[in-house]
């Protein structure tokens, strides 16, 4: 598609813009023209290496050789030691000729196909089908003969149209034909082998205007002067004299008298063509012409003649008798003129003339292409020259668009926008065989039945005449970023393209300017287009002068013939190497090779099909001409290496996190609950087993015949626990939780059951009723001392029984050093000590009694005072005893009111504080002190927060509802509101199972952030669900040392900031809301990593400030993550998950990261919008977080850390460093300077990649934007 100037958004991101296309017809390049292809040289300069100097400092090339690939470090440059000239080897020379002939046959078919396609698209409907078919044969014959014979192709060819006659009357003149006549009719009409004199001036008399002389005298002087000038010309004895301008009448007469033909008023371009054809010198004046050597300045040709074309058949009375002069030569090398006839009107011939020019240009280009391709040993494949289905954007053979390339994507997109009529015609044309025969009977010119209704901006040109490339000079050490600039290469054009030979001579070889020689010592030149990048490096073989070589050194140089060939070659030579192999031959570059368009050369390398090499190269038997090939050009002691690299440009730039997806599956949620239920079951069963063991021990100790009732109760609890576990797990399997809220509800259910079991277990373990045995006088070995039991009935009667207060006082005054018998292990140890005599029975009986071993029937101890449980009961029988045994009720713990071990729950339950009140609509949200965001999540679900939020909206007369198209403006107004809405929520958790824990959460600008989350499609329920769990996140990306937390689902990042930083951000938050509201309302892109919540939380005595922001890489797998600030000094990260600027530059070899044009425009627009806003609010030290995913060809980017203002301390630091450092070394910049540096750096980090369908805009060299 012809690139036309469009919106400046395409490339205004660059300092330099692509050159505009000329609206005037392009001038075709001759072999002698040398345009300035590379208009600027942008060198990458290290900030650390430059101080006050603006000029780059070049280093010795030796320091960069180690960074070159192995292919470029070989001293022989992949040219074998015993290399030979390809023309000196008959087999290889024959193979080259054979391949050229095969390519020529393919070219004929290729040109015929393009010619017929051009005829089908042309507006020559007035011609009959027979004439159109006849023109196909004529145009093909004329274009092929001209392109093969004329040295400069279209540049040396002109086409003249003469209405009338038949298509077969068209003919080719080997020379120059001009629509001019001789100065006088009496002059000769035919001259064989004429002597031609060419004068680029007029032959006239210029009188002095300041002198006053009589008219007769002036006329006499004029006549005499003309006679003298004519006599000077006569002395050279020319047959034909060609003047660029007017010839005086007297001079004409004098020359005509000697039978000299005069032709005057010739254009400069035609004058040069005549001089080229006749090989005559162009004189600027006739002065001193008589003193010149005639053989030096005169030219000749085969014949000069005057030709009068036959006029067309017309009804007009007056017939044109315009004549033409012809300078005919023996061959077509120097130039040719095609006389086109066969149409009645000049408009039809003009249309055919444009087609013929294009075909000649195409055939000439294919001639040069096969010259250089055959020299590299490339063998064509039958049918490889044919283009793919649909219109091809190339006018070269053996090229194709690669799958999923930028050009292919653009072509498919444009194809979808075409009208039905054009699609029908194209499908009709695709059905016809690509190989068209010359016979006129086989050609059918299908015309669309309906007019084209395609949008004008998608119409592709008939011929692709140009290539847009991104040019970049990059350092070989890849430590410094480089600037990429777009260049438009219009093939074979004098202003925007050059030949391959001119490029090598002007920029690479020893004849190059000093600036380019110095550049290639430390840099390489890269041209990027679509999905390929061409690297050009200059490898100099210059050596220091040494002493005279000995015999051994001379013999060594003779063996190493390749180095000698490279260093002594005067004519440029070329060879190709594949992989690590070396080429056995080199080829001297012919005129056709050196004349090949440099733009076409780049196009071939970028789009070439994988063609094989000829079989005469055994070392390249299985190789193909692809990106593994390195093409070498050498002249004297300079070698130029050209390699091709396949790249994968970024197709998409994401400025927001991906769609919300749940990372927690149902299985993961269920597994956690299964484990928790199993843990509760195991702990409860362990408590029951411990209690049963203790009661069994007491039964054996007391020699009881009847087991206590509590044992039966404990057995019942065991069955209850098992039944609950089976029921709960079955419920989980049949109805697994779908989200965090359902999981927390089931978690709360597990807690409620565990708490209920603890209560029942405590109640069943606090009472045991048993009777004494009749044979208590003879206790067994396991029984307690009989004296203990005999003393109990001697207690006073009911009226003398001690009161509760007295008993509690005695219990409290018990010695703390006594052993406890509260647990099973303690009771067993106590009995063991009794047996061994370590404890005296009678002395310690009373104390142990008060240690809650046994109480008489008449004693009623309330556990609320002693054990923190329900009151004790007594038996109706006076011979029975009410024995209470509470696990964990040690005497030392009674005073501190610590809970019993029967009231202990797993820490995995208590750490989530499940006893907190439920939220709105009975929503269960748990809080974990080790996960601060859970405090925020609980607060957002609470009734208190919801009440405050509803109250604020009611005061503002707005509805609290989900955002849709109808309520969008309502939420935008809330977001822009400057009324503060800081909601603070206090809550605490205290129960029988754990101590008091206090919480608080203050939500700053709660209503505005609520509106923001609604406007950016963050569901409030999922937002709370994400904040319910978090973990510490070690990014290692910055120097601020701020703590980061990441939600378990990785949806959000939480940054812990100081109170001062929070105050700074709150001071600019109204403008932050206004800017986001504007971007949302207008739909403008933004890459700010949105802060969607600001909170201050407290957990007991700990307080922290949290900023909740989007996580850029949520649900994405990036290969590398970079934190870019736009400077190189001190920006190298040796470890960590986040890398810095110099790591970014090093990873991409100093060349800007290639992006698709639409992706670059999206990134650039968002970056410019955001940085302009941040500069307006005096924010500095922000950076761009970039994630690169090579597999998806995607970049995710956002601006982070925009909470630092350029305050008084920053100003003081900036002015202080200005006194100690140079301006370029100061790292603390004001907002405008920081923004400028940031934007400039991004132009070096990212660049758009052009394709065949890229749009270009005018470039202004004085534009510094």
TrEMBL record:
Taxonomy, superkingdom: Eukaryota
Record protein name field: 1-phosphatidylinositol-3-phosphate 5-kinase
Listed EC numbers: 2.7.1.150
Organism this protein belongs to: Aphanomyces euteiches
SUPFAM superfamilies: GroEL apical domain-like, SAICAR synthase-like
Cited PROSITE patterns: PIPK
Listed CDD domains: PIPKc_PIKfyve
GO MF term (any one): 1-phosphatidylinositol-3-phosphate 5-kinase activity
Root EC class: transferase
Domain (PIPK) ranges: 932-1246
InterPro entries: Cpn60/GroEL/TCP-1, GroEL-like_apical_dom_sf, PIKfyve_PIPKc, PInositol-4-P-4/5-kinase_C_sf, PInositol-4-P-4/5-kinase_core, PInositol-4-P-5-kinase_N
Region (Disordered): 13-33
One Pfam assignment: PIP5K
GO CC terms of this entry: endosome membrane
UniProt entry keywords in alphabetical sequence: ATP-binding, Kinase, Nucleotide-binding, Transferase
GO biological process: phosphatidylinositol phosphate biosynthetic process
């Amino acid at each position: 598609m012809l690139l036309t100037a469009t919106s400046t958004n395409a490339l205004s991101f660059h300092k330099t813009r692509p050159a505009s296309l000329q609206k005037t017809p392009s001038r075709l390049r001759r072999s002698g023209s040398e345009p300035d292809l590379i208009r600027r040289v942008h060198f990458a300069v290290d900030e650390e290496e430059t101080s006050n100097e603006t000029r780059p400092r070049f280093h010795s090339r030796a320091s960069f050789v180690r960074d070159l690939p192995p292919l470029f470090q070989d001293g022989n440059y992949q040219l074998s030691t015993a290399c030979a000239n390809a023309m000196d080897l008959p087999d290889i020379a024959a193979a080259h000729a054979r391949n050229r002939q095969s390519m020529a046959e393919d070219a004929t078919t290729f040109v015929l196909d393009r010619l017929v396609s051009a005829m089908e698209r042309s507006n020559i409907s007035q011609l009959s089908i027979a004439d159109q078919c006849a023109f196909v044969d004529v145009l093909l014959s004329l274009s092929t003969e001209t392109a093969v014979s004329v040295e400069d192709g279209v540049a040396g060819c002109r086409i003249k149209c003469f209405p009338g006659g038949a298509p077969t009357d068209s003919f080719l003149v080997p020379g120059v034909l001009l629509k001019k006549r001789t100065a006088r009719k009496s002059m000769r009409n035919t001259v064989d082998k004429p002597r031609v004199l060419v004068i680029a001036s007029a032959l006239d008399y210029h009188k002095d205007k300041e002198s006053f002389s009589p008219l007769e005298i002036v006329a006499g002087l004029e006549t005499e002067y003309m006679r003298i000038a004519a006599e000077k010309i006569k002395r050279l004895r020319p047959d034909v004299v060609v003047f660029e301008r007017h010839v005086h009448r007297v001079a004409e007469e004098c020359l005509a008298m000697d039978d000299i033909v005069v032709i005057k008023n010739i254009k400069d371009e035609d004058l040069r063509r005549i001089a080229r054809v006749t090989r005559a010198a162009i004189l600027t004046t006739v002065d001193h012409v008589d003193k010149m050597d005639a053989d030096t300045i005169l030219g000749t040709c085969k014949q000069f003649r005057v030709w009068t074309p036959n006029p067309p058949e017309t009804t007009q009375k007056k017939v044109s008798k315009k004549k033409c002069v012809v300078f005919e030569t023996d061959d077509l090398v120097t130039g040719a003129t095609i006389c086109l006839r066969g149409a009645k009107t000049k408009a039809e011939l003009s249309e055919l003339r444009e087609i013929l020019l294009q075909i000649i240009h195409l055939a000439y280009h294919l001639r040069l292409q096969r010259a250089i391709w055959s020299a590299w040993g490339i063998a064509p494949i039958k049918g490889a020259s044919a283009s793919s289905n649909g219109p091809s954007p190339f006018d070269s053979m053996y090229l194709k668009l690669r799958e999923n390339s930028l050009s292919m994507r653009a072509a498919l997109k444009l194809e979808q926008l075409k009208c039905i009529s054009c699609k029908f015609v194209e499908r009709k044309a695709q059905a016809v065989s690509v190989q068209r025969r010359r016979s006129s009977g086989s050609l059918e010119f299908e015309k669309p039945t309906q007019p084209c209704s395609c949008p004008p901006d998608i119409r592709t040109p008939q011929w692709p005449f140009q290539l847009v490339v991104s040019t970049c000079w990059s350092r070989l050490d890849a430590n410094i970023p480089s600037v990429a600039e777009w260049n438009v290469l219009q093939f074979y054009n004098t202003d925007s393209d050059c030949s391959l030979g001119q490029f090598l001579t002007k920029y690479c070889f020893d004849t190059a300017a000093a600036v380019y020689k110095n550049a290639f010592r430390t840099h390489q030149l890269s041209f990027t287009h679509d999905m390929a990048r061409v690297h050009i490096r200059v490898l100099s073989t210059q050596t220091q002068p040494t002493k005279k070589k000995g015999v051994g050194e001379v013999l060594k140089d003779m063996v190493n013939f390749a180095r000698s060939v490279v260093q002594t070659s005067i004519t440029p030579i070329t060879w190709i190497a594949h992989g690590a192999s070396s080429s056995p031959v080199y080829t001297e570059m012919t005129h056709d090779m050196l004349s090949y368009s440099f733009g076409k050369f780049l196009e071939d390398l970028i789009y070439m099909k994988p063609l094989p090499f000829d079989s005469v190269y055994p070392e390249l038997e299985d190789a193909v001409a692809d990106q593994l090939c390195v093409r070498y050009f050498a002249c004297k002691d300079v070698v130029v290496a050209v390699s091709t690299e396949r790249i994968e440009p970024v197709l998409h730039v994401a400025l927001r996190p991906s769609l919300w997806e749940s990372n927690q599956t149902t299985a993961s949620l269920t597994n956690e609950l299964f484990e928790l239920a199993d843990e509760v079951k195991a702990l409860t069963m362990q408590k029951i087993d411990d209690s049963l063991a203790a009661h069994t021990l007491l039964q054996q100790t007391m020699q009881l015949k009847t087991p206590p009732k509590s044992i039966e109760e404990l057995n019942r609890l065991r069955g209850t626990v098992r039944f609950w576990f089976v029921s709960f797990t079955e419920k989980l399997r049949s109805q697994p939780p779908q989200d965090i809220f359902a999981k927390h509800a089931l978690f709360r259910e597990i807690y409620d059951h565990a708490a209920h079991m603890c209560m029942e277990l405590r109640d069943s373990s606090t009472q045991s009723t048993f009777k004494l045995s009749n044979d208590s006088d003879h206790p067994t070995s396991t029984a307690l001392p009989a004296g203990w039991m005999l003393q109990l009935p001697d207690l006073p009667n009911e009226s003398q029984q001690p009161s509760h207060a007295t008993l509690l006082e005695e219990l409290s005054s018990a010695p703390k050093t006594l052993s406890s018998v509260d647990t099973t292990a303690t009771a067993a140890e106590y009995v063991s000590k009794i047996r061994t005599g370590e404890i005296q029975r009678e002395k310690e009986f009373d104390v142990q009694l008060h240690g809650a071993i046994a109480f008489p029937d008449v004693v009623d101890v309330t556990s609320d005072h002693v054990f923190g449980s329900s009151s004790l009961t007594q038996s109706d029988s006076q011979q029975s005893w009410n024995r209470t045994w509470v696990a964990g009720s040690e005497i030392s713990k009674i005073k501190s009111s610590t809970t019993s071990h029967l009231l202990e729950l797993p820490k995995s339950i208590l750490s989530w504080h499940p006893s907190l009140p439920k939220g709105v609509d009975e929503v269960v949200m748990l809080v974990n002190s080790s996960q601060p965001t859970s405090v925020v999540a609980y607060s957002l679900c609470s009734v208190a927060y919801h009440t405050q939020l509803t109250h604020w909206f009611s005061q503002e007369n707005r509805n609290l509802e989900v955002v849709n198209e109808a309520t969008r403006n309502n939420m935008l107004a809330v977001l822009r509101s400057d009324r503060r809405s800081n909601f603070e929520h206090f809550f605490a958790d205290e129960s029988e199972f754990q101590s008091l824990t206090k919480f608080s959460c203050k939500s700053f600008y709660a209503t505005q952030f609520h509106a923001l989350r609604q406007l950016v499609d963050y569901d409030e329920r999922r937002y709370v669900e994400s904040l319910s769990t978090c973990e510490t996140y070690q990014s290692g990306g910055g120097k601020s040392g701020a703590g980061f937390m990441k939600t378990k689902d990785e949806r959000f990042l939480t940054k812990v900031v100081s109170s001062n930083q929070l105050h700074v951000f709150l001071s600019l938050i109204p403008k932050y809301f206004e800017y986001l509201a504007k971007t949302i309302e207008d739909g403008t892109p933004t890459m700010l990593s949105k802060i969607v919540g600001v909170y201050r939380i407290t957990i007991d005595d700990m307080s922290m400030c949290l900023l909740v922001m989007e996580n850029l890489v949520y649900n994405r797998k990036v290969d590398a993550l970079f934190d870019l600030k736009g400077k190189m000094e001190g920006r190298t990260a040796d470890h960590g998950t986040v890398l810095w600027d110099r790591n970014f530059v090093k990873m991409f070899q100093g060349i800007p990261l290639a992006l698709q044009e639409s992706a670059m425009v999206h990134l650039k627009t968002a970056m410019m919008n955001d940085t302009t806003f941040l500069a307006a609010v005096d924010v500095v030290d922000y950076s761009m977080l970039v994630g690169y995913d090579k597999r998806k060809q995607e970049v995710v980017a956002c601006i982070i850390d925009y909470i630092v203002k350029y305050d008084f301390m920053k100003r003081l630091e900036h002015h202080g460093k200005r006194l100690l450092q140079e301006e370029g070394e100061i790292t603390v910049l004001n907002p405008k300077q920081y923004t400028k540096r940031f934007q400039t750096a991004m132009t070096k980090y990212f660049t758009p990649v052009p394709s065949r369908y890229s749009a270009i805009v005018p470039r202004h060299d004085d534009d510094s934007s």
